[in-house]
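lol forgot to send this yesterday, sorry. C-alpha cells for the thing we talked abt
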C-alpha cells in the first residue's frame, strides 16, 4: 500500500471532520481512523460494484432463461402442429381404408347376389334345359341348312 500523506488532498474530509470533533489533530489515532474510513469507503464501493455486477449477471441469466423458455415453447408448438398433421394423415388413411373395405364388401355382396340369381335361374330352368341337353345336338352345318 502506498504511504498515506499526513494531510488528505484538498476537498477530502479530514479524519477529525469525518469522525467528529472528538478527535483533534492528525496524530496516529487520526491517521488510523482516516485509513479505516478509506478502507470502509473502498469496501463499500466494492460491495456496490459487486451488487451491480450480480444484478447484471442476474439480468443476463433471466434474459437467457426467457430466451430458452421462448425457444422451448416454440418447439412445443411445432411438435403439436406436427402431431396434428400426423393425426389428420392417420384419419385420412383410416377413411381411405374404410372406403376400400366398403367397396370390397359391396363387390362381394353383388357377386353373391349375382351367383344366387344365376343359381335360382338354373333351378327354374333346370328341367327345361335338361331335356334340351339330353337331345342330340345338331351340327352347325345342318342347323345352317335348315335355317337357310
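and heres what i got for the seq, position by position
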Amino acid at each position: 500500500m502506498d504511504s498515506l500523506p499526513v494531510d488528505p488532498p484538498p476537498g477530502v474530509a479530514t479524519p477529525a471532520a469525518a469522525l467528529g470533533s472528538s478527535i483533534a489533530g492528525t496524530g496516529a489515532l487520526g491517521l488510523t481512523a482516516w485509513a479505516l474510513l478509506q478502507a470502509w469507503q473502498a469496501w463499500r464501493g466494492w460491495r456496490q460494484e459487486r451488487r451491480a455486477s450480480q444484478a447484471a449477471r442476474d439480468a443476463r441469466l433471466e434474459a437467457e432463461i426467457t430466451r430458452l423458455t421462448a425457444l422451448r415453447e416454440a418447439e412445443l408448438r411445432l411438435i403439436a402442429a406436427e402431431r396434428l398433421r400426423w393425426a389428420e394423415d392417420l384419419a385420412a388413411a383410416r377413411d381411405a381404408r374404410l372406403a376400400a373395405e366398403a367397396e370390397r364388401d359391396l363387390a362381394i355382396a353383388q357377386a353373391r347376389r349375382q351367383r344366387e340369381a344365376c343359381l335360382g335361374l338354373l333351378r327354374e330352368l333346370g328341367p327345361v334345359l335338361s331335356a334340351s341337353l339330353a337331345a342330340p345336338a345338331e351340327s352347325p352345318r345342318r342347323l345352317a341348312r335348315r335355317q337357310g
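The mean pLDDT is 83. anyway ping me if u want another try
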